[in-house]
Specification:
Elements: H1 2-41, E1 44-51, E2 53-68, E3 71-75, E4 80-85, E5 94-95, E6 100-104, H2 107-163, H3 169-222, E7 225-227, E8 232-237, E9 244-245, E10 250-255, E11 260-267, H4 268-274, E12 294-300, E13 305-315, E14 325-331, E15 349-366, E16 375-380, E17 383-395, E18 398-403, E19 409-412, E20 425-432
Parallel strand pairs: 1-20
Antiparallel strand pairs: 1-19, 2-11, 2-15, 3-10, 4-6, 4-9, 5-8, 6-7, 8-10, 11-14, 12-13, 12-15, 13-14, 15-18, 16-17, 16-19, 17-18
């Protein structure tokens, strides 16, 4: 009896286990069909936005610091005490081109100039004296040469007479002595003339040296006054009135406020949008490339955004090996700062927006609406349509795309947990994507 009950219990457990397994298996077999039915019968509510073709310039954003193209460290060229300085020679001051900035005490340099003028006058006097001596010795030499010639003829005559015993020996000796004296006088005059010529040459050198000294004295006197080389803004002042300065001492740092520019690092891949002709940029001359692309500088002063309009001036001379960027140099056209609420000065940090080539016939779509497979979901007569798009460029939260899209297509902005073409959809809300976003 016990054995029979034992087998009955075992058989019951086996049957129960078999029933449970059968139910599980049946549930798995029925699940796909039920899911299919759910997909076929369920309708999702979605929000859509209408899209239309647009044409917009490519915008490349960056940041940079305003810096001048022309700046100088103004040095003292001579030693001396600063006697006077310009009232605007203070940080931030503006000084017009050609205005006197610094004056060094000129008294010593005036004395040196007077000394140089007198030295030049003395050298010229020595030159004139040497020239006068030369003229006199030339005349003396002519007379001496004539006397020598006369004495020689007289000596020849008496020597002939002496051979025929027509004159005495003592008379011949007198004639010979006179001839020697004439030769001596001629030699003396020749030596004196040579020395005068040397003195003349020496005085010519002295005149040249005196002229150089005079020019240097005048230059140093002029250097006591330092003028603004251009319309300049004072970046820093390093000297004060009453201070003794030496040559090379920096008086002030100045820059030309009309040459302000901003260096904006731009990826090499983005340059094609600014400079289409520079596709082979790395083999070209960067500094010769030009662009008419418009540039907008903006500063947010927490109350309002202040902007200026500029243009691309040039590119820097090399590409960074670290991040493959090149500096695009942008500048403000002359007169563009008139009426500006905020001074455009050195060191100002600005946001820069470069306007590049025009993208024509593209659709501006929020990046969030594009899948990782570069597809967008469209509402098409109550059904889901999936289209592949080509992303030409992405800027911030938007992407510019092309593909099988048309004006007034309804792009789905609602995130769907699952996507398959043809699923039923119902519109919950409709918006339009503004091309000005």
């Amino acid at each position: 009896m016990k054995i029979r009950n034992y087998f009955s219990l075992i058989i019951g457990l086996v049957l129960l286990l078999a029933g449970v397994l059968a139910l599980i298996l049946m549930g798995r077999l029925r699940a796909p069909q039920e899911q299919k039915d759910v997909r076929e019968t369920s309708t999702r509510y979605v929000e859509i936005e209408k899209i239309n073709k647009t044409s917009e310039p490519v915008k490349i954003s960056g940041f940079g610091t305003v810096q001048p193209r022309v700046s100088v460290a103004l040095p003292a060229e001579i030693p001396g005490i600063i006697r006077w300085r310009h009232d605007s020679l203070e940080t931030g001051g503006i000084i017009a081109s050609g205005e006197k900035i610094i004056e060094i005490d000129p008294e010593n340099y005036k004395i040196l100039l007077q000394r140089a003028e007198k030295n030049l006058a003395m050298a010229k006097l020595q030159f004139e004296l040497a020239q006068s001596e030369i003229d006199g010795f030339k005349k003396n030499l002519e007379i001496s040469a004539e006397n020598v010639e006369i004495s020689r003829r007289e000596l020849d005559r008496f020597e002939t007479l002496e051979k025929s015993n027509a004159t005495s020996r003592s008379q011949l000796d007198k004639i010979r002595s006179a001839f020697k004296n004439a030769l001596a006088l001629k030699t003396r005059d020749e030596n004196a003339l040579s020395q005068s010529i040397i003195r003349k040459s020496s005085s010519e050198v002295a005149i040249s040296q005196a002229e150089v000294s005079l020019a240097e004295a005048r230059l140093n006197l002029n250097r006591t006054v330092i003028k603004a080389p251009f319309l300049c803004r004072v970046e820093a002042r390093h000297s004060e009135a009453g201070e003794y300065v030496t040559p090379g001492k920096i008086i002030a740092h100045l820059y030309d406020p009309s040459t302000l520019e901003v260096h904006v690092p731009v990826s090499v891949s983005d340059l094609i949008w600014l400079l289409p002709e520079s596709a082979l940029l790395e083999s070209g001359n960067l500094r010769e490339l030009k662009s008419d692309a418009m540039v907008k500088f903006c500063v947010d002063d927490s109350l309002e955004e202040i902007c200026w309009i500029g243009k691309i001036s040039r590119l820097s001379g090399s590409i960074s090996n670290k991040n493959r960027t090149v500096d695009v140099v942008v500048e403000l056209p002359e007169g563009s700062l008139q009426g500006s609420k905020l001074p455009f000065i050195k060191g100002l940090f600005v946001e820069v927006e470069l306007m590049g080539r025009l993208l024509e016939g593209v659709f501006k779509v929020p990046r969030a609406f594009i899948s990782r497979y570069d597809t967008v979901n469209l509402f098409d007569n109550g059904k889901l349509r999936v289209e592949k798009v080509e992303i030409l460029r992405s800027e911030n939260e938007f992407a510019y795309v092309t593909g099988a899209l048309a004006d007034n297509d309804a792009i789905i902005s609602t995130r769907l947990p699952e996507v398959f073409p043809g699923m039923s959809l119902t519109i919950a809300a409709t918006q339009s994507i503004s091309v000005d976003d």
